[in-house]
Amino acid sequence: MQPKEDLAAIKALFEENGSFVILSHCRPDGDAYGSAIGLALVLKGIGKKVEVYVEEGLQEHFQFLPGSSLLKPTPKEAPGPSTKIILVDCSNERRPGLYFESWHRKADLNFDHHIDNTRFASLNVVEPQASSTSEVIFKCIERLSLPCSKEAASNFYVGLLTDTNGFCFRPLLPETFELAAKLVRLGADPEELSIRSFRNYPLSRFFLLREVLNQTQFVENAQVAYYILTQDMYQRTGSSPGESENFLYYLQMVDSVAVAFMLEELSPMLTRLSLRSSKQFDVRTVASKFGGGGHKQAAGARLKLGLQEALKAVLSEIQALLNSTF
């Protein structure tokens, strides 16, 4: 719950300014898109000029989101000084990518739910107990008595739905389900949005998933599972990096797996790490060893190492985590 003075400051920011830019993080997921577009629709609904940016632009899979046409790739040029900057679902100022960094502009408002958020903006609304950034924003909108259209509610619902993986992942509090019910009452269609979010992928994603599952490795008595993504795999399957999201879920379906991770080749000496775990293992501690972060059961980092060096380093840290937990 935000202090009254913070809510007053956010209200003043919205009322006293006419132009806003909303940005979310690289490699966007449903919450990145849903929170950014949903907030943009709310601000446009009260007469504001709003631009929405993600460095990679809009993935084809999320074109179904109402208002998705608002979202554009982040431009190299910074907006004018009168335009206020809002970051959503970003734990630090590096998450929106290199173009935003080159703007050399401080964010005016930061909405997030990551526990390691650095509170980098002039105003920060960070609630680590929330299921998603969409939940954080919608609760703030409610407290400010701002109108939320059916289209905005649908975006917030997708953010909540995808960040909990269909209401399966923690944190899941009674308030999360109550919020979902409010969004449905505002017009969000739970069946349609669920189908669009989880059963709306191109055939190339299936081909990529087949390759991933074929090369998945199980180690540490099948307590740890992992796979590696290479640029060659994308080329062979005709897929794109955005289509590989949430593949770790399939590894976690194995009952013995406590920690699942993937390594993705970004360049010969840059590797992306993504980790998931069962509730007793805090994989954020592993990600932090490599300058990353996230949540207890979902975290990530970028390693300035080649794939094999990265694999060796990550496995060593996970082994230490297993030993310290038992």
UniProtKB/TrEMBL annotation:
Source domain of life: Bacteria
Domain (DHHA1): residue spans on this chain: 229-322
Pfam families cross-referenced by the UniProt entry: DHH, DHHA1
Every DDH domain range: 20-159
PANTHER family reported in the protein's UniProt record: BIFUNCTIONAL OLIGORIBONUCLEASE AND PAP PHOSPHATASE NRNA
Protein name (Swiss-Prot/TrEMBL): Bifunctional oligoribonuclease/PAP phosphatase NrnA
